[in-house]
Amino acid sequence: MSVVRVFQVETHPGKEAEFEAFFRETVMPLMRSRPGIEQLVFGLPRPETPGRFCIVMVWKDLEAMKAFVGEEWQNPHILPEEAALIADRSIRHYELAEG
Questions:
Q1: pLDDT score at 98
Q2: What's phi and psi for 56, nearest 5 deg?
Q3: How far apart are CA 57 and CA 40, in angstroms?
Q4: Sign of dihedral through CA atoms 23, 24, 30, 31?
Q5: Rg of the Cα trace of the chain?
Q6: Measured in Å, how far apart are the chain's first and last C-alpha atoms?
């Protein structure tokens, strides 16, 4: 069964542009290269939520996702170079509704 993983981050005020560059140059290519990814949607901030970014990932199955994020797959992981830019993060998981 495919797994939908919704990852959201909120940047520290004033870090939006720096995070967007990192998001485009590092995160997006990294996620596109992962085996087991079936679909990816990258969300950039809207004017009313200037520091909020998201990635919606559809993984082939839980094992494919675990191969990337590890056994602590229920936690929102970030790269070390992101830590100073991110004020908050969250992760949610769903089963893909086929049909």
A1: 80
A2: -110, 120
A3: 5
A4: positive
A5: 14
A6: 13
